Amino acid sequence: MLHIVACIKQVPDTKIIKMNPKTNTMDRASAPAILNPYDSHAVEEAVRLKNRYGGTVSVLTMGPPPAVKAIKKCIEIGADEGYMISDRAFAGADTLATSYALTCALEKISKIKPIDLIICGKMTIDGDTGQVGPGIARRLDIPPLTSVKKVVEVNKEEGHMVVHRKLEDGYEVIQSQIPCLLSVEKEINEVPYSTFPNMLRAARYEPTIWAVADLEGVDKKQLGLKGSPTIVSKVWAPPKPEGGKILEGSSQEQVDQLLSVLMEKKELFTQKGGA
């Protein structure tokens, strides 16, 4: 029987979000909050492993009170329990501070029920760093298996698992001891529509919520802005690409026009220090 914990995050829908042209920052109020797409695949894989080997799936997130909606979505997918750490002390956390806070919560969860496997999405669509999962693994001193596209086997009795890890030109087969942490690709599975019983359960479900005071042995200097050595100084929307130029006229006229354009860009073809 496995106890799998999926770490998830509620994020703004980046397909809809707008940029504030005055401040060059994301206007998070302009888009609805959703479960991070990569994390939905992490939860789905956790549920599939539970169905395959037996056990329990818990989900963990850090965020403000509205992030409860992301946990309810995970219950719809098939998770059994949900935990959230929510406190103003966590505000402004970068990936380092986030991994520390989640690690503290994972240690508390493990005292309730020992954890065999942690699954994260490859990255979040609002940050795109892919650093939190490996950061958690480093703090817990367990193997991090990144870019996982397939779980072949989990053998709790022998204490190992086998996965396929995605590479640019194929994949590699890795055997790792467990407990370990996976960060998974979207292609690892397809998330089906939620069943009606799961939707009913999710609507009624209330997760366990912990503040900083509920966690043990927390160094508050490593939380939130105080524990974040990195900052995002500026975010901006990339400029729209210029439209292409259509060459018109006879073949010779088009050739002349093309040569004219190339001569305007001749510095692209001139070697440094040469003529």
Model description:
By secondary structure, this protein is an alpha/beta fold. Helices cover 28% and strands 26% of the residues. It is built from 6 helices and 13 strands. It has helices at 37-53, 68-77, 95-112, 132-140, 196-204, 251-264, and strands spanning 2-7, 10-12, 18-20, 25-27, 33-35, 55-62, 81-85, 117-121, 144-155, 160-167, 170-177, 180-184, 208-210. The strands form 3 sheets. A 9-stranded mixed sheet has the order 11-10-9-12-8-1-6-7-13, with helices on both faces. It has a two-stranded antiparallel ribbon with strand order 2-5. Helix 2 (68-77) packs antiparallel against helix 5 and helix 3 (95-112) packs across helix 4. It is globular, with a radius of gyration of 24 Å. The N and C termini lie far apart (72 Å). The model has no long low-confidence stretch (mean pLDDT 89).
